[in-house]
Amino acid sequence: MSEARNWATHREAKAEKLSSVASLLNGKLAKTSDAKAILENLIAPGDKVVLEGDNQKQASFLSKVLASVDPARVHDLHMIMSSISRPEHLDIFEDGIASKMDFSFAGPQSTRVSQMIADGSLQVGDIHTYLELYARMFVDLIPNVVLVAADKVDRDGNLYTGNNTEETPVIVESAAFHDGIVIVQANEIVDKVPRVDIPADWVDVVIPADEPYQLEPLFTRDPQNITELQILMGMMAIRGIYEKHNVQSVNHGVGFNTAAIELLLPTYGEQLGLKGKIVPNWEVNPTPTLIPAIESGWVQSIHSFGGEVGMEQYIAARPDIFFVGPDGSMRSNRAFGQMAGQYALDMFVGSTLQIDQYGNSSTVTNGRLSGFGGAPNMGSNPTGRRHSTPAWQSLRPDNDPLGKGQKLVVQMVETFGSNKRPVFVDSLDAVEVRKEAKLQNVPIMIYSEDTTHIVTEEGIAYLYKTSSMAERQAAIEAIAGVTPVGLRSNPAQVADLRARGIVAFPEDLGVNRNQATRSLLAAQNMEDLVKWSKGLYNPPAKFRSWS
Amino acid sequence: MEKLHFNYAATEKIAHPVHIGVVASGDLEVIMKPTTNSESTLDIVTGSDGFKEVWGNVLTRFFDRYPLLADFEINDFGATPGVVNLRLTQAMEALKNE
């Protein structure tokens, strides 16, 4: 008879670690000044550690403390992070505190990530979408310790995460129910939280932070900067895609192209008689450029991945539209938002830095390993989808008895980027980056097979209608302007593609180019957005040009 | 500053002049006038030197699609190829919508 196995080794290890810091805790509350000692006692060498931080909210106090621990005590950590956003996220690799990284997005640090992979100081497990990184926290990347951020915490350890709940619940859940340790930085300790976003018994240690967590207004776009080309592209998209396919539910990526569409719905969309007919339901962050469409009755519901700085009061006053708790403040949820974005939407509209001759696109360019964030979840056709909507059904091929619909995945780009480099290229820079970074796969954001439409200032390519790769390439060439890809286009083929509805120019859609002026936007600047919101929107200082 | 000149074979005569756009940063003005020439002539003044090949590409693509027979005068202040094409096609539309 073999020796009885101990089935609770994780639980015992956690209890032992927590007992080592018992003298530093009052209940679950620690002192700010003891933060370093707590991390040094609770994190063991080689641990899998989730450090909260997406493209908006960062557990910035805990990341600074982690970067200050003694590498002789805490080293070779395996970091699991949605976003590599702050310098210390990479400093810990140079100091030996961490050695391996699994992540989703590296926007602000993408250049340094590339360099550190090249010189061997950063070992990458893999690059993920947000949703698949969360998924792995429950399968093969189950964390030992998670470091998260809360707005308010009561003396029992109940967390209020409010507007910026984002990914905190999914991270905490992955640790709390598998004997991981949950450490929370708090903006404020209060007697009573406005509502309980995460219950106290999922939480082990709460540390008051020396300053509020970092929060970026990432989705705020000043209408002042929207160009006439973006307005023309928006008009084409509304006529040639939103109206044509009867789109009811949508996600807009971050960018000026989609901000233009949001500001054209109450004007151009109204002229076309589309109000009440298209896009009532949104999975999108509460971007201020949606305010005019909301106020003029275009929008029925908005669920959000995260909050947006300055939108709190406006959202609280519009509970019919947004997801708002009984306390009156918004609740976001990044994991549920990504799930909704993948499975429940008719359409994703995004932008990118490069599209190759076949229609594959990526934001990874030479020297910048930026990762993906959530775009591939939204910008892909979920083959597990079984419910039908008119827009989804409108892409169904008619020659297959078992055929099914498809999600609309739309890329909107100007043929030349702001750096005057061509967006349409023969081969993506990502192909080279894969070699340099020793990745298993080329870091493609959205594959050609998932891309159903491309919109440029020249027109729309309806890629889902093409019947061969050669035809798909010709459709892309027809709208790729004078990029190397576009120059291969020949006039006879373009005429044929237009006649068959595979390519449409503005005149084919009934879009008048001379109407594409800034006066067509429902709001011309930030002050207009504040007026539309009846004074409820409070833009961050960097977006204020008036007093 | 650079002055460029192009000629393009074209077939669709225009009846009267048209003027679109302004000379502002990142923008340009396009003036088209009826002509008695057998092909279109283009006189371009651009603030960005060294882009003759790109201009040629933009114009070839435009005349392939819209063979307007006219004398063109273009004053450019660093517009992208996309904006150049927008102004050319806006001028084309202004003529057709009358």
Automatic annotation (TrEMBL), chain A:
SUPFAM superfamilies (alphabetical): NagB/RpiA/CoA transferase-like
Stretches for region Disordered: 379-400
Domain of life the protein comes from: Bacteria
Single GO molecular function: transferase activity
Pfam families xref list: Mal_decarbox_Al
Protein name as it appears in the record: Malonate decarboxylase, alpha subunit
Native source species: Lacticaseibacillus manihotivorans DSM 13343 = JCM 12514
UniProtKB/TrEMBL annotation, chain B:
Predominant place of localization: cytoplasm
Keyword set, alphabetical order: Cytoplasm, Phosphoprotein
Compartments it resides in: Cytoplasm
Residues with PTM O-(phosphoribosyl dephospho-coenzyme A)serine: 25
Any one GO cellular component localisation term in the record: cytoplasm
Pfam family name, one: ACP
Coiled coil regions in record: none
Modification after translation (UniProt): Covalently binds the prosthetic group of malonate decarboxylase.
InterPro entries noted in UniProt: Mal_deCO2ase/Cit_lyase_ACP, Malonate_deCO2ase_dsu
Domain of life: Bacteria
NCBIfam families: malonate_delta, PRK01220.1
Name of the protein in its database record: Malonate decarboxylase acyl carrier protein
